[in-house]
Design a protein that fits this description.
Structural class of chain B: alpha/beta
Helix content of chain A: 25-40%
Number of domains of chain B: 2
Number of helices of chain A: 17
Largest sheet of chain B: 6 strands, parallel
Radius of gyration of chain A: 25 Å
Shape of chain A: elongated
Largest sheet of chain A: 6 strands, parallel
Number of helices of chain B: 18
CATH topology of the largest domain in chain B: Rossmann fold
Strand order of the largest sheet of chain B: 3-2-1-4-5-6
Oligomer: heterodimer
Number of strands of chain B: 14
CATH topology of the largest domain in chain A: Rossmann fold
Number of domains of chain A: 2
CATH architecture of the largest domain in chain A: 3-Layer(aba) Sandwich
Chain lengths: 405, 420
C-alpha cells in the first residue's frame, strides 16, 4: 500500500471552473493521478480571475485557479480539432474516471460523451456535472456558482428581511456540490471493484445543492410555508448573533454568541461582570420573544470589549462564542494553525503562494497538497511523449498545428 | 429499492447536527446506516421548525430531512450494558461517524482505540468544530459560531448592520458532507489492505473552504472583502449582484470578456428592444470589456458599471422573476432569480428530471412528505432516499436481535434497566 489513500487511481479531467476541479482535487491530494485537459484557446475562466500574484492578471498567475488544482498534472489540447480528440481517445483506456463539467452538448458534439468513451473503456466511470443536469428543458443553462446560489435558494434565506437579500460571498453552491460528487465517485469506484461495472454519473449542481436547503423545502411542500431571511434570529438560542466589540486598527470588530439556555445566560452575564434586571430576559422564551431588545442590551455590554479576549472569557464560562473573523484573521487563527490548515506551495510562475489545506486529517494515509497547480501545458511532454509515445518532432508538429495549445 | 452502490456496508451514526448529513448521504448510496441515539431521542429531533409547528420526535423538519433512510437504535451511553452493545455493533460495522465533544467517546470506552482493537478494519470519523489540537478544541459550539470562525459571516450583511447567518444553518452540513468524502477516501485502501483508520474533520476549515479563495486576497492584493449587502468586490471595484424586479429579486453577473461578454451583449440587446440600452452600450465590444473586477477601476469603468447597473435595474422593474428568467434562458444570459422554496418547488427543470420524491410517513405522521431526491443520477446504481427517518429506537429489535442475536427477553431487560 502506498503512502496515499488513492494511489493508483487515474482520472482524465476535462472539467473547469469550480465544482468538478474541486471534486478531482480530493483525489489528486490523496495520491490519485489526475491529468487536467485544458486549452489556451478556451481557458478555464478561473485562470482569468483574481486573486493574482502581485495583483497582475496572468493565466498562469491566478491563485483562484491554483487553489482548486493542486497535485494535478496539466496538458493542453484544443478539443475542437479532430487530432486532439484522437489523442484523448488514446488516453481514455488509461483512466478509471473521466470527469467533465461543460454544458451538456460539448462532449456530445466532440463524440467524447459516455456512450462513445465506454466503447473504448467499458469499465469507465464518468462524471458529468453542470448547472442543472444533462437532461430537461434547462439543461443548457449557462452559469456560475454565484447564480446557482441564487437559483437554489441561498440568497433568499440570507438577509435581514424580504426586501434586502444579502448574498453569501462568492459562488456558494460550488462548495456544496463537490462533496457530493466526490463521495459518489469514490463509492462508484468501490462498486466497480466489487462488480466490474463502471457507470455514468449525471450530477446537477442545482439538485445536489438543494440538499443543504432540505428542511425548508420539505416544510414548503407540507405546509406551504416559505422560509425567508431573518437576520440572526433563532428559535433555539438567545442571544444569537453578532455583537459589536471595540474597533481594532480602524476595523469593526464583532463577536458571535449563541446562548442555549438559562444557565448559559447566567454564565454569560457572569463572564461579562454584568447584571440584568430586565424581566423580559429572565427566561429563554422571554429572550427569544424580545430578541431585538436583547440584542441592544448585549451590544451595550460587548461594545467596549476586545472580541478575542471576550471569546476566551465566554468560552471559559461555557458559552459558545467566537470572533467574527475576516480573511486576514483566518491566517492568524490559532485553531486553523493547530490543524495545519495553511500551506505555502512553490508554484512555477507565482513562487510561494498561500493555499488552503484539507478540511480533514487521516491517521494512516493522510492526504497532502502534493504540488502546486500546473501552469498551462506543464506536463505536455510527460504525457504526450511518456504516456502516448509521441516523438519530439510529432509534438512540435502538433503544437504548430495548434492541436497542443 | 435501496441503492446497490454501497450495499452491504454498515455505518454507525453517532452524530448530531454537526454531522447528520454524512449518514444521510451514505444511506442514499445504499449503505446500512444505524443511528444510535439516547432513549429519549437525539437532540436533532428537537430542532424547529416542526410539521404544523407541533413539536414531536418525528416532526422536526431537520430530522425528517437528514435522518431519512437511516435505522435507529437507542443506547444510553451512561449504561455499561448499552456501551457493550455499541462495541458489538462497531465490531460488525465498516464505518463509525461521531460528533460528540472531543474525547467523550474515548472516556467511555467507545473511542477509536477501543473500537479498532476489536475491528481493525474500522474507519472512524470524528467531526469537530475546531479540530483536535488547538486551544478551541473543547469550545462550546453552535452553527453560527462556525459561520463566524470560518469567515463567511463577516462577508454577509450590510454595512452599518451586523454580519449575518443564513436562516437554515449550514456549517454542520458542510462538515457532515466532508466526513462522507473523507470516510470514503479511507475506504478505498481499506478494501485492499484491510486496515481502517481514524479521521478528524475540522468544521471551521470546512467553512473557510466555502469562501471562494477570498483567503488569498489580503496576501496577494493587500485588501479583504467587507460586507456590502447586494454588492460584491472591494469598495473600489464593487459590482451589484442583486436587482429588484416586480415581484422579488434577480441576481445577475454583469461581466465582459470570456466570462460574460456574450451574456452582457445579449442582455444589452434585450434591453435595447425595450428602450433601456444607452448608445455607448450598443457600440461596446463586450468580448474585450474587462473592467477591473476586485481591483481598482478607472473613472470610465466606474461610469459604465454604474450606468449599466442603473439601466438594468430599471429594466428588471418592468418584469417578474419568472418573465426575466424565461427571457434569459432563451437568450443565454448569466442570470438567476433569487428563488425562494416555492419557486424551487415549482421549477420546470426539477420537475422534468423528477427530482422531488414522495416518501411515505403514514405510520409516523399519517401522510406523505415530498423531499429532495437523489443528489446525482447514476446509470447503474440509482441513489435514494428510499425511506422516511426512523422513529426513536424503531430498529432495536431488528439490530440488537437480528444482528447481535440478542433474544427478546434480554432486549426487554435492557429496556427495563434503561440501557436502551
Amino acid at each position: 500500500m502506498g503512502r496515499f489513500a488513492l494511489e493508483g487511481v487515474k482520472i482524465l479531467d476535462f472539467s473547469w471552473v469550480g465544482v468538478a476541479p474541486i471534486t478531482t482535487k480530493y483525489f489528486a491530494d490523496n495520491g490519485a493521478e489526475v491529468i487536467r485537459v485544458e486549452s489556451a484557446s478556451r481557458l478555464d475562466v478561473l485562470r482569468l480571475a483574481p486573486p493574482w500574484k502581485d495583483a497582475r492578471p496572468d493565466p498562469n498567475g491566478s491563485q483562484f485557479f491554483a487553489s482548486y488544482n493542486t497535485s494535478k498534472k496539466g496538458i493542453t489540447l484544443d478539443l475542437s480539432k479532430p487530432r486532439a480528440r484522437e489523442l484523448v481517445r488514446k488516453l481514455v483506456p488509461w483512466a478509471d474516471i473521466v470527469a467533465e463539467s461543460f454544458t451538456p452538448k460539448a462532449m456530445r458534439n466532440w463524440e467524447l460523451d459516455y456512450e462513445h468513451l465506454r466503447q473504448i473503456n467499458p469499465q469507465l466511470i464518468m462524471l458529468s456535472t453542470c448547472m442543472q443536469g444533462q437532461t430537461g428543458p434547462n439543461a443548457l443553462y449557462p452559469g456560475f456558482g454565484q447564480l446557482m446560489a441564487a437559483l437554489s435558494g441561498f440568497y433568499y434565506i440570507s438577509g435581514y428581511d424580504k426586501d434586502s437579500p444579502c448574498p453569501p460571498y462568492g459562488a456558494y453552491s460550488d462548495f456544496i456540490a463537490p462533496r457530493f460528487s466526490a463521495s459518489v465517485l469514490l463509492a462508484a469506484l468501490d462498486y466497480r471493484r466489487r462488480t466490474g461495472k463502471g457507470q455514468y454519473i449525471d450530477m446537477s449542481q442545482y439538485e445536489a445543492s438543494l440538499h443543504n436547503l432540505a428542511p425548508g423545502l420539505i416544510d414548503y411542500f407540507a405546509t406551504g410555508r416559505v422560509i425567508g431571511p431573518r437576520g440572526n434570529a433563532s428559535e433555539r438560542y438567545a442571544p444569537h448573533g453578532a455583537y459589536r466589540c471595540a474597533d481594532e486598527d480602524g476595523n469593526e470588530r464583532w463577536i458571535a454568541i449563541a446562548v442555549a439556555d438559562d444557565a448559559q445566560w447566567k454564565s454569560m452575564l457572569g463572564a461579562l461582570g454584568a447584571r440584568c434586571d430586565d424581566a423580559r430576559f429572565a427566561t429563554r422564551a422571554g429572550r427569544i420573544a424580545n430578541a431585538a431588545a436583547l440584542d441592544d442590551f448585549v451590544n451595550g455590554l460587548t461594545r467596549p470589549l476586545d472580541a478575542r479576549e471576550l471569546t476566551r472569557k465566554l468560552q471559559e464560562a461555557g458559552v459558545a462564542a467566537y470572533p467574527v473573523q475576516n480573511c486576514m484573521d483566518l491566517h492568524q487563527d490559532e485553531n486553523l494553525e493547530a490543524f495545519d490548515f495553511w500551506h505555502w506551495l512553490e508554484h512555477k510562475v507565482m513562487g510561494p503562494s498561500p493555499y488552503e489545506g484539507l478540511q480533514h486529517r487521516m491517521s494512516r494515509t493522510p492526504g497532502d497538497l502534493r504540488s502546486a497547480a500546473p501552469v498551462l501545458g506543464q506536463h505536455n511532454d510527460e504525457v504526450f511523449s511518456g504516456m502516448l509515445g509521441l516523438s519530439a518532432a510529432e509534438i512540435e508538429q502538433l503544437k504548430k498545428e495548434n492541436v497542443i495549445v | 429499492m435501496t441503492s446497490e452502490l454501497l450495499k452491504g456496508f454498515r455505518m454507525l451514526d453517532l452524530t448530531d447536527e454537526k454531522g447528520a448529513l454524512c449518514g444521510k448521504m451514505f444511506a442514499d448510496m445504499g449503505a446500512e446506516v444505524i443511528k444510535i441515539e439516547p432513549p429519549g431521542g437525539c437532540a436533532t429531533r428537537t430542532i424547529p421548525p416542526f410539521l404544523e409547528d407541533v413539536p414531536g420526535p418525528d416532526r422536526s423538519f431537520y430530522a425528517i430531512a437528514y435522518h431519512a433512510g437511516k435505522k435507529s437504535v437507542t443506547a444510553n451511553l451512561d449504561n455499561a450494558e448499552a456501551r457493550a452493545l455499541v462495541t458489538e455493533l462497531a465490531a460488525k460495522s465498516d464505518f463509525v461517524v461521531e460528533s460528540f465533544p472531543l474525547g467523550y467517546l474515548d472516556s467511555i470506552g467507545l473511542g477509536y482505540d477501543d473500537l479498532s482493537r476489536r475491528n481493525s478494519r474500522l474507519i472512524y470519523t470524528s467531526i469537530t468544530p475546531f479540530g483536535d489540537k488547538g486551544p478551541g478544541r473543547n469550545y462550546q459550539w453552535a452553527d453560527i459560531i462556525s459561520w463566524a470562525a470560518g469567515g463567511m459571516m463577516y462577508m454577509m450583511g450590510e454595512e452599518g448592520k451586523p454580519p449575518i447567518q443564513m436562516s437554515l444553518p449550514q456549517a454542520g452540513l458542510h462538515a457532515g458532507a466532508e466526513a462522507a468524502v473523507a470516510s470514503l477516501i479511507a475506504h478505498y485502501p481499506r478494501q485492499t489492505d484491510g486496515m481502517g483508520q481514524k479521521i478528524v474533520v475540522d468544521m471551521q476549515a470546512c467553512v473557510v473552504w466555502t469562501l471562494m479563495n477570498e483567503q488569498a486576497m489580503p496576501i496577494l492584493h493587500g485588501d479583504h472583502i467587507r460586507r456590502t449587502g447586494v454588492f460584491t468586490g472591494s469598495a473600489d471595484a464593487r459590482r451589484k449582484m442583486v436587482y429588484k424586479c416586480k415581484d422579488g429579486h434577480i441576481s445577475a453577473l454583469i461581466a465582459g470578456g470570456a466570462v460574460g461578454g456574450a451574456s452582457t451583449k445579449a442582455l444589452v440587446a434585450w434591453m435595447n428592444e425595450k428602450g433601456f440600452a444607452a448608445d455607448w452600450m450598443l457600440a461596446k465590444d463586450w468580448a474585450t470589456w474587462v473592467p477591473g473586477m476586485f481591483m481598482k477601476m478607472t473613472e470610465r469603468d466606474r461610469f459604465e458599471i454604474d450606468d449599466l447597473e442603473d439601466r438594468i435595474q430599471r429594466f428588471f422593474l418592468t418584469m417578474t422573476k419568472r418573465e426575466i428568467y424565461e427571457g434569459t434562458l432563451k437568450r443565454r444570459i448569466l442570470l438567476a432569480p433569487v428563488a425562494d422554496v416555492s419557486d424551487i418547488a415549482h421549477d420546470v427543470q426539477l420537475e422534468a428530471r423528477q427530482y422531488f420524491v414522495e416518501i411515505d410517513h403514514d405510520d409516523t405522521l399519517g401522510r406523505k412528505l415530498t423531499m429532495p431526491g437523489a443528489f446525482a443520477k447514476l446509470s447503474v446504481t440509482p441513489l435514494g432516499p428510499q425511506s422516511r427517518a426512523p422513529k426513536i429506537g424503531e430498529h432495536n429489535r431488528e439490530v440488537y436481535g437480528g444482528l447481535l442475536g440478542i433474544g427478546d427477553d434480554r432486549i426487554a431487560n435492557l429496556k427495563a434497566n434503561g440501557a436502551i
